[in-house]
Amino acid sequence: MLADVGSIPASHSIFVDVLDRLGGSPVADFFVEKNDFLPIQGKKSFRTETALEAGSDNSINIKLWEGEIEDPISDNQFIGSFRILGTDLSEGVVPAGSEIICNFTIGDDGVIQLSAAIPVIGYDFGTKNFYSRQEGQINIDEVGMIADKANKHLKKLHDLSAKIDDGDLSQAIDRLKGIVSLLEEEIDEEDILKASADLQETIQLIAKTKKKHLVLFRQRDLDETTMSFNSHFRKYADEAECEKIDNLIKTCQQAINRKDQAFDKYISELESQITTILWRHDWFMIDAFNYIIQDANKYRDKKQFEQLRDEGLILLRNDKIDELRHVILKLLNIQTKSADSDLYSIVNIIKGG
């Protein structure tokens, strides 16, 4: 990797999450680490975990994150995804194990340029721009997303506080309550900057607490996912799908009991399987579309967002739900300010060439 003379240090690390091996666990593969100098450019090589068929709704997911938290990776700041969709291919199949070549440039202004190509099929998927906020930068439109993230963590910690007596956990709860309370008042950009910084510090405190009580944190996540499926979604699955979900739940439980690092991969697969079941139902697609078009601030390219939103509304009025599915995928692909888009994308690239 190359950096320019006279450049500035990065305020946070930038990385993609990858599997450490085939069937392995998600790990961070860094483009730049905290205090490395910017601007910088470099090249990374990954491999596909599974095949991607032309025309399918599946995707190869290159997900960008900002931060230093190793576990869980999702507690870092999500930047965005470079998703290679089956609908991007005119024909053929990307075989499992295919090399993905990514070139990147990270500027001192926080702009990340990322390109992706798959040589075995001769496809270059172009370059996309992402944005990583540098120290002291804030956007007033981020209030809702900061509040949502704080409330999400607060709910989880409240659940765990009944089973864990830990000063760090209590401190994290108090700090999250303070952040939520601050954001409910009339605030300016300085307040938002403080809330954002406090939240990132609190998330690091939560990560420290999780290391001490890893089994209980994981058990809570599995119990919540299992209860949600059994209470709301099992009725939409066929017998084979129910069996597959039940087996994944058992695999997750075994990973908890063994303190296996692969737990994060297994629960991600579980959540993805549940989403796949819902994806084929029209009511879910309609709800999903209406949800993701609520906040234009989650999209860096507002013009493209508006075009896709309007296209989706027309399809919805004409009851063309199959075509609406493709619009939803495109919308998720251009979300850059929220991990909502991560709901539909699991880690499926492998480290190294």
Describe the structure.
The chain is an alpha+beta fold and 353 residues long. Among the domains are: 2-135, Sandwich (Substrate Binding Domain Of DNAk, Chain A, domain 1); 140-213, no CATH class. The chain contains 9 helices and 12 strands. The strands form 3 sheets. Strands 1, 4, 9, 10, 11 and 12 form a 6-stranded antiparallel sheet that branches. A 4-stranded antiparallel sheet has the order 3-2-6-7. A two-stranded antiparallel ribbon has the order 5-8. The two termini are 17 Å apart. The model is unreliable at 337-344 (pLDDT under 50).
What is the topological layout?
Layout: E1 2-9, E2 14-19, E3 26-32, E4 37-48, E5 52-53, E6 59-66, E7 77-85, E8 93-94, E9 99-106, E10 111-118, E11 123-131, H1 143-161, H2 167-183, H3 189-212, H4 214-233, H5 239-258, H6 263-279, H7 282-292, H8 302-317, H9 321-334, E12 349-351
Antiparallel strand pairs: 1-4, 2-3, 2-6, 4-9, 4-12, 5-8, 6-7, 9-10, 10-11
Helix pairs in contact: 1-2, 1-3, 2-3, 4-5, 4-6, 5-6, 7-9, 8-9
